[in-house]
Specification:
10 strands; alpha/beta; TIM Barrel; 11 helices
Amino acid sequence: MEYRHLGASGLMVSELAYGNWLTHGSQIDADAAKACVHAALDVGITTFDTADTYVFGGAESILGEALAGVRRESYVLCTKVYRPTGDGPNDRGLSRKHIIEGCNASLKRLRTDHIDVYQAHRYDVETPLEETMRAFDDLVRQGKVHYIGVSEWTASQIAEALNMAADLRLTRIVSNQPQYNLLWRVIEPEVVPISRREGIGQIVFSPLAQGILTGKYLPGQRAPAGSRADNERGLRFISRWLTDDVLSRVQELQNIADDAGLPLPVMSLAWVLQNPAVSTAIIGASRPEQVRANARASGVQLDAETMKRIDEVLDPIVERDPGKSQQLEKRP
């Protein structure tokens, strides 16, 4: 496993991070989750990503249990705040109340006294940005949080937060967590340029497009039993790619991967890591062998010919429009 700085910060993160969205407490049980976490540690993954809203805190609790007994200084723990965690009017958003209370609740579930990277899960259009930034800054000053980041913020929102931090001498954000993969490249036109310029690292989620880029989904055939597309919840996030055109082109990628001497998932992950704006890519897993297999992508360099062939296959279906990303979400 190789390691990179998180943006321009001094924090080192593993090139691959282990995330537990849609798995811990939902798709797999606690014992299977613990096995996956320890498989991640065994291959050198030191960065773990979760959120307070995943299974309404259940994913954080399982991750905290799985990491119990592991030397705290040896891993980087990332979680998020914003999404609903209860039925009350203040159980969501980026108000001072929800951020402070959300952080304290996450610390308990994660069995730790600090969060390494605390992220705004989305932008909150109903709370003044200064209120949000000051709450995050207070948590850093209290030692409960080491770094702050955001997730799926637009370039203009990132710029506004950076300018405010500079003007008010507040802790500045060091990371953004966007969706990014071979099929979904909406961060490239605007978010990547400002991030490179300002030292914001990308903590990429869905680098395998919810499993589409593993090649296991075939055109004209039912989703494999037990796969993400085989259940109603997972299907919501993957359905846009379950078209014969997309799946046929993904199968063409298999030939390119074969020529490169790589499994298709490893090539797909290596492509994401080839972007210098990316600090780490989050992988999920329901079995330890999936973690071990995907870990092979760390350190892999794709040559120019392979990159060119990939684009020739995918260019007609790649999404690059920043307007397609789901920002500016109103609270549910």
